[in-house]
Specification:
Layout (H helix, E strand, L loop, with lengths): L1 H13 L13 H11 L5 E6 L2 E5 L5 E7 L16 E5 L5 E6 L6 H9 L11 H4 L11 H16 L2
Antiparallel strand pairs: 1-2, 2-3, 3-4, 4-5
Amino acid sequence: MKGNLLAILALPLMIGGCTESSHRPPGADALIRESKAAFPAAAEFDFTAPGRMEIRDAAGKLLGHARFTDPASSGATGFRGPVPVAVFLDPGDRVVTTALLPNQEDRKFVDKLRQDDLCGRWSGFPRSEAADLEVDAVTGATYSSRAAVSSVRALLREK
């Protein structure tokens, strides 16, 4: 009987399960780190669906949510490969900030994007307006910045 009970409890895990951890991306630690920077009171991170996460404080109050590209499969291509990003939105669907997630771009290009505050260019805009903002590429990091802008726009336009 005990063996059957364990087999029944393990069945959802063997067939893919329906737990929130099934949506946890490979780069979750970096995403959580960026979430804490965007929402300093963040304490709980619920991966609700692929590419989606809710962010709550220690009391369970919703601070906002994130949309993110999966580093292994999406994100526009920069000079050396995909440039995954995350978009952080408040509960009213206004952009708090965006973030570059771990990628294979040369460090000097990523540093240029950070120096030029590429990730802050959408901050404060409603998601619907931010999706259509004209954001210029960063000189000296054109491929990387175009990829990041393209990825951010795609996330902002998702339903």
